[in-house]
Design goal:
Elements lengths: L9 E5 L30 H17 L4 E7 L8 H15 L5 E8 L6 H10 L1 E6 L4 H4 L12 H12 L7 E7 L6 H9 L5 E5 L23 H18 L1 E2 L1 E4 L8 H9 L6 E2 L7
Parallel strand pairs: 1-2, 2-3, 3-4, 4-5, 5-6, 6-8
Antiparallel strand pairs: 7-9
């Protein structure tokens, strides 16, 4: 039987193997796999050229109209302004053709994000996603420098630039890692204050043997996790109506198919743009 061949259309390109924060829920740096310690800091020019060439080869072979490349890390801005410029120029001239449009994105913790980087991203039309875990208290529960300093003020300053008229078209949205110890309404209020076009909600890294705090064992199907599901579905839903805002909410989760929490998120995920409105409060 013939199988349908589905080509890849999105590529996550790890461009730097280190991070300038020490978020204690990070699955790369703070958990058991410490193999990052032996890896090169930044992507080598030869590696970047090889990756760009293979992406272009794949796009040409399958006649793809759009290819999405996300620069990731570690913290990708640690590659530096000139290193990032060279990489973007390489990707543009190698991947983009008359047939294929290259959609470039970067995901960052934003502590290094400034006007120089944003001007560069505007030149190459690079959309910017930012990690933020809510209001100051919620964000500072995990997203700290290694010496314990808060990252919140620098991130909010960068988001202020992204929200400005000059750079608003680059603003892709926010990624929030959930912690049920945080107040869910405070989390959503903190996220909405940054006026994101979309929000992605992420569970902390876990396995079937080591579930996130607050979840019941998967083998007991009758057992529910009411504190988790109610905290991050029912209460925020009421608060959205109260604040009069509608926004695109996506569960950026994997590894828990069929789980109660996943089912809850898929029920109330919405595809809509951010707006000040009393229309369509999220159910």
């Amino acid at each position: 039987m013939d199988h349908l061949l589905l080509p890849f259309r999105q590529f996550v390109l790890k461009v730097h193997s280190r991070c300038d924060l020490a978020c204690n829920h990070c699955y790369i740096y703070e958990h058991s796999d410490q193999s990052w310690r032996g890896r090169p800091l930044g992507i080598a020019p030869e590696t970047a050229a090889q990756a760009a060439g293979r992406i272009a080869e794949h796009a040409t072979r399958h006649q793809l109209r759009d290819v999405h490349v996300v620069l990731h890390g570690g913290e990708p801005l640690l590659l530096g302004l000139e290193g990032t410029r060279r990489l973007l120029e390489l990707l543009k001239r190698t991947v983009e053709t008359e047939v294929t449009r290259l959609d470039l994105r970067i995901h960052t913790n934003a502590v290094l994000l400034d006007e120089a980087f944003l001007d560069l991203f505007a030149t190459h039309d690079v959309k910017v996603g930012v990690s933020l875990d809510g209001d100051r208290a919620s964000n500072d529960r995990h997203r700290l420098y290694r010496d314990g300093r808060s990252s919140y003020d620098k991130v909010v300053k960068a988001l202020g630039l992204l929200r400005s008229a000059k750079y608003r078209q680059l603003y892709a949205g926010l990624l929030c890692t959930i912690d049920i110890a945080n107040d869910p309404v405070d989390v959503y209020r903190g996220l909405l204050e940054q006026e994101p076009p979309r929000i992605d909600l992420l569970l902390p890294h876990a396995t079937w043997e080591h579930l996130p705090p607050g979840l019941g064992t998967p083998r007991s199907r009758r057992r529910r996790s009411p504190s988790f599901t109610r905290s991050f579905s029912s209460r925020p839903a009421r608060s959205w109506s109260m604040y009069g805002k509608t926004i695109c909410i996506e569960p950026a989760m994997s590894g828990f198919p069929g789980h109660t929490l996943y089912q809850q998120y898929t029920r109330w995920r919405q595809r809509c743009t951010y707006e000040e409105s009393q229309r369509h409060p999220i159910p």
